[in-house]
Write a structure and sequence with these properties.
The chain has about 375 residues and is α/β, with parallel strands linked by helices. The protein folds into two domains: about 170 residues, ATPase, nucleotide binding domain (Nucleotidyltransferase, domain 5); about 180 residues, Nucleotidyltransferase, domain 5. α10 packs across α11 and α11 crosses α12. The longest helix has 24 residues. It is globular.
Length: about 375
């Protein structure tokens, strides 16, 4: 998934990707992954912290310890690439982690999620690396170690008309699988020899969450929202819900705010119907002829197809390709069914799976090769560097 030629992939990159109960990291040296680990944090370990954002030092220490156990010296790491957290304003691309970003992430200004930890941890480690180098008098080839994030999920390049909601208090906002979809877009362009400025693509990422994004001329001009109810049914999320029943549920007195949020995100979709977020299980039961699974799978496919076609309307139907990706895209039963419903709009290409660690490393090598623009984050307004 790397962009530069192998001879140009020089340097050592640490990649950090935090989840709710796991910390994934990898080390890439001269373009090859030499270490990949997933640290699993027990409920007992995490229960010591009142808030997920209090876990940054614990997880920082865990990565540093694991690297040491594998014989990897911190001083040898040239840059740290981190999963993007919830912060705005921003556009797609690469950002160095700075004080403004740390403040927005650590205070959860735009949302509280474990992904916010990645940049904090990466920046902590980068500072440790620079202190060690100074102590040892080392002069690294690529200069000081800096932590970066790539393609954060709230990157906003939407057309003005795509922001407008039904009432001013509810503008449409972005939160999508920017990292994987942008990496998949680059892969498609390499595979076909097309140029970003001449290509319009609708990319559907299907995992625990499902987002559909519209890529035109190298920008993402519209997208569904992965967490906010502006999107299709997913394996574990409710997607778009009718507002009146939702209002009644909120004021019924039967549920807390957190319980309702869980119904929408985490316990919605296939989890709500069948107690599983594994679409392989849904497909298996549907193929056995179990009617409730057959109907749900048809609804899952139809929901996604509707959102794909709706994105086509934004560009007057002038779409070059529809790309299906994410873990669920390994199911040909699902991708074939979606294809039948949307291939009249544009040809469909399937790139199953996702590898966020490799995508981050790809961005890292573009940084080291000076092949990409570096943005500086400003917490108050968008700055295009």
């Amino acid at each position: 998934m790397m962009t530069a030629d192998k001879k140009e992939q020089k340097g050592t990159i640490l990649v950090v990707n935090t989840g709710s109960i796991t910390t994934k990291f990898a080390v890439y040296k001269d373009g090859s992954c030499i270490l990949e680990q997933k640290l699993e944090h027990s409920v007992q370990e995490l229960s010591r912290f009142a808030d997920v954002m209090d876990q940054d030092q614990m997880r920082t220490d865990a990565i540093i310890s694991a690297l040491g156990e594998q014989g990897i010296r911190l001083e040898d790491i040239d840059i740290v690439m981190c999963r993007g957290g919830l912060f705005t304003p921003c556009v797609t691309g690469v950002y160095n982690v700075n004080a403004d970003m740390r403040e927005v992430l650590s205070t959860s200004r735009e949302g509280n999620h474990a992904c916010n930890l990645s940049a904090l941890i990466g920046d902590n480690i980068a500072h440790n690396i620079n202190a060690l180098r100074d102590k040892e008098g080392l002069k690294p080839a690529f200069g000081p170690c800096i932590a970066y994030v790539a393609d954060p999920p709230m990157a906003d390049e939407m057309l003005p008309e795509c922001h407008v909601g039904g009432i001013p208090e509810f503008p449409r906002r972005t939160l999508f699988h920017a990292l994987n979809t942008r990496a998949i877009m680059r892969r498609y362009l390499r595979d076909t020899g097309r140029k970003a400025e001449d290509t319009t693509a609708i990319i559907c990422h299907m995992g625990g969450g499902v987002t559909i994004s519209l890529h035109r001329g190298g920008r993402v001009i519209d997208t569904s929202h992965g967490l906010g109810g502006d999107g299709p049914i997913t394996p574990e999320r409710a997607g778009c819900c009718p507002p009146y029943p939702l209002i009644d549920m909120c004021f019924s007195g039967k549920y807390t705010k957190e319980e309702i949020r869980k119904k929408l995100i985490g316990r919605g979709g296939a989890v709500a119907y069948f107690g599983t977020n594994d679409m392989r299980e849904v497909v298996k039961r549907a193929k056995e002829g179990r009617e409730e699974y057959v109907v749900f799978m048809k609804a899952f496919v139809l929901n996604i197809a509707k959102y794909i076609v709706a994105q086509g309307a934004v560009v007057d139907g002038k779409v070059d390709v529809i790309i299906l990706t994410g873990g669920v895209a390994y199911s040909t039963d699902i991708t074939d069914a979606i294809t039948k419903k949307v291939d009249w709009l544009a040809p469909v290409v399937v790139y199953p799976g996702e590898n966020e660690l490799a995508s981050l490393a790809e961005n890292g090598y573009m940084i080291l090769a000076k092949e990409t623009k570096i943005h500086t984050y400003n917490k108050d307004h968008l700055v295009e560097d």
